[in-house]
TrEMBL record:
Binding, alpha-D-glucose 1-phosphate: Y100, G165, E180, K181, S191
Protein name: Glucose-1-phosphate adenylyltransferase
GO MF annotations in UniProt: glucose-1-phosphate adenylyltransferase activity
Lineage of producing organism: Bacteria, Bacillati, Bacillota, Clostridia, Eubacteriales
Domain Nucleotidyl transferase intervals: 8-260
Enzyme class, UniProt record, top EC level: transferase
All residue ranges annotated as the Glucose-1-phosphate adenylyltransferase/Bifunctional protein GlmU-like C-terminal hexapeptide domain in the record: 289-373
Record's catalysed reaction(s): alpha-D-glucose 1-phosphate + ATP + H(+) = ADP-alpha-D-glucose + diphosphate
Family assignment from sequence similarity: Belongs to the bacterial/plant glucose-1-phosphate adenylyltransferase family.
PROSITE patterns from the UniProt entry: ADP_GLC_PYROPHOSPH_1 (PS00808), ADP_GLC_PYROPHOSPH_2 (PS00809), ADP_GLC_PYROPHOSPH_3 (PS00810)
Pathway linked to the protein: Glycan biosynthesis; glycogen biosynthesis
SUPFAM superfamilies: Nucleotide-diphospho-sugar transferases, Trimeric LpxA-like enzymes
Length: 378
C-alpha cells in the first residue's frame, strides 16, 4: 500500500433512460454538454486538476462513443507511462461473461486492478454529473476526520429531495442515517455519488457483499448501510459549488441554460480550473452582417445568418436567414433553415428543421426534444 495515494474509479456505464433519445446510441456520460464538452469531461478534468492521475473508467452501456472520446486520455493529461486512464469494461471469467450487477459489483470486479496500484484511498465517482470540484480538499477532510468513508453531499431543493440518497448528520457532519430516495424526505443533504474510502476497509466489504445473495451490490443500497450498521466512521463533506444531475431532458436543458444565466456559478472561463475535452480542430464560427446573436454560446464551425437568443450551439451548425432560435440547445451538425422558429428546445445531432417550421412559442414552459423523426415534449 502506498501511503497517502488516492486513485479514482469513475462509474461511466449508465444508460440514462430518462434522457430518452439523447442516450439511444451513447452512454449518459458521453452526452454532449455546454457547446463543446461531454458530461464525462467534468469528472475527468476534476481528477486532472486535483492531481489524480490514476483513473479507472468503468464502462458498460453502448461504450463506443465514450471510448472514442476518452482515447488514451491525452485531452486530460492522463496519457502517462505510469498511471493514467484505463477503460475497464465487463469481462469474461470462468463463469462466463456478465454485466456489472451494480456500482459496488463494478468495483469488486476490478479489485485486482486496484490492488496492482496499491492505493491507501479510493475515490468513487459518477460519470454523469456537471460540477467542478477539488478532490484533494475532500481527501484532506477525510484524513482529518479519520473517516472510513466520506460522502460528498450538496443541498438540493426540498421538492427534489426524494430523487436522491439523503444524509442525516450530526453538527460535526458525522452521518447518523442514510435514506435512499425516500418518499418523505427528512433531509435535503443529497449524496453526490462521490465517495472516498480507505481501500483496505472497502475491499473487505466488497468481498463480503459479493457473497451475500440478498445484496443489490450497490453502494447506496448495500455497502454504505452495512458500514453504518458496523459502526464505521462515516462523514459527510458538504460541497458548496454548482452541481447538477442531468437525469431528465428538462434538467439537461436547464443545466445548459444555467451557463447563460447572470447567476451562473459554473465558470467555464476559469484559467485555474479548466474543463478539458477532445478537440475536433474545426474552423472558427461565422456570424453574417445580418445576423443577431444575444447571450449565446457558439462553438466552432457554425454559420449564423439568423437570430440567436439565450442559446447554446455545438459545432458545425447552420442557422439560416430570418431563422430564430431562442432558449435552446442545438447539437452538432443541425441545420435550422430559413425562416424557421425554435423555442425552448433541445435539437439533436444532424437534425434539419425545414424552412418556415415553428417549434414552441416564446412563452412556452414545455421543453421540446427534437429528433429526425419526432418531437417529444418534456
Amino acid at each position: 500500500m502506498k501511503e497517502g495515494k488516492m486513485i479514482a474509479m469513475l462509474l461511466a456505464g449508465g444508460q440514462g433512460s430518462r434522457l430518452k433519445l439523447l442516450t439511444k446510441d451513447v452512454a449518459k456520460p458521453a452526452v454532449p454538454f455546454g457547446g463543446k464538452y461531454r458530461i464525462i469531461d467534468f469528472p475527468l478534468s476534476n481528477c486532472s486538476n486535483s492531481g489524480i492521475f490514476d483513473v479507472g473508467i468503468l464502462t458498460q452501456y453502448k461504450p463506443y462513443h465514450l471510448n472514442s472520446h476518452i482515447g488514451i486520455g491525452s485531452s486530460w493529461d492522463l496519457d502517462r507511462r505510469t498511471g493514467g486512464v484505463r477503460v475497464l469494461p465487463p469481462y469474461t471469467n470462468e463463469q462466463g461473461g456478465r454485466w456489472y450487477k451494480g456500482t459496488a459489483n463494478a468495483i469488486y470486479e476490478n479489485i485486482s486492478f486496484i490492488d496492482e496500484l496499491s492505493p491507501e484511498f479510493v475515490l468513487i465517482l459518477s460519470g454523469d454529473h456537471i460540477y467542478k470540484m477539488d478532490y484533494s480538499i475532500m481527501l484532506e477532510y477525510h484524513r482529518n476526520k479519520k473517516a472510513d468513508v466520506t460522502i460528498s453531499v450538496v443541498e438540493v431543493p426540498w421538492e427534489e429531495a426524494s430523487r436522491f440518497g439523503l444524509m442525516h448528520v450530526n453538527p460535526d457532519m458525522s452521518v447518523i442515517e442514510f435514506e435512499e430516495k425516500p418518499k418523505k424526505p427528512k433531509s435535503n443533504l443529497a449524496s453526490m455519488g462521490i465517495y472516498i474510502f480507505d481501500w483496505k476497509a472497502l475491499r473487505r466489504y466488497l468481498i463480503a457483499d459479493e457473497k451475500d445473495p440478498n445484496s443489490g451490490n450497490d453502494f447506496g443500497h448495500d455497502i454504505i448501510p452495512k458500514m453504518m450498521n458496523d459502526g464505521k466512521k462515516l462523514f459527510a463533506y458538504q460541497f458548496e459549488g454548482y452541481w447538477k444531475d442531468v437525469g431528465t431532458i428538462k434538467s439537461y436543458w436547464e443545466s445548459n441554460m444555467d451557463l447563460l444565466a447572470d447567476s451562473n456559478t459554473l465558470d467555464l472561463y476559469d484559467r485555474n480550473w479548466k474543463i478539458y475535452s477532445k478537440n475536433r480542430h474545426l474552423p472558427p464560427h461565422y456570424v453574417s452582417k445580418d445576423a443577431s446573436v444575444v447571450n449565446s454560446l457558439i462553438n466552432e464551425g457554425c454559420r449564423i445568418e439568423g437570430s440567436l437568443y439565450n442559446t447554446v450551439l455545438f459545432n458545425e451548425i447552420m442557422v439560416g436567414k430570418n431563422a430564430q432560435v431562442v432558449n435552446s440547445v442545438v447539437l452538432s451538425g443541425a441545420v435550422i433553415e430559413e425562416g424557421a422558429e425554435v423555442y425552448n428546445a433541445v435539437v439533436m445531432e444532424d437534425v434539419v428543421i425545414k424552412a418556415g417550421t415553428k417549434i414552441g412559442t416564446k412563452d412556452d414552459t414545455v421543453v421540446y426534444l427534437v429528433s429526425k423523426n419526432k418531437i417529444i415534449e418534456s
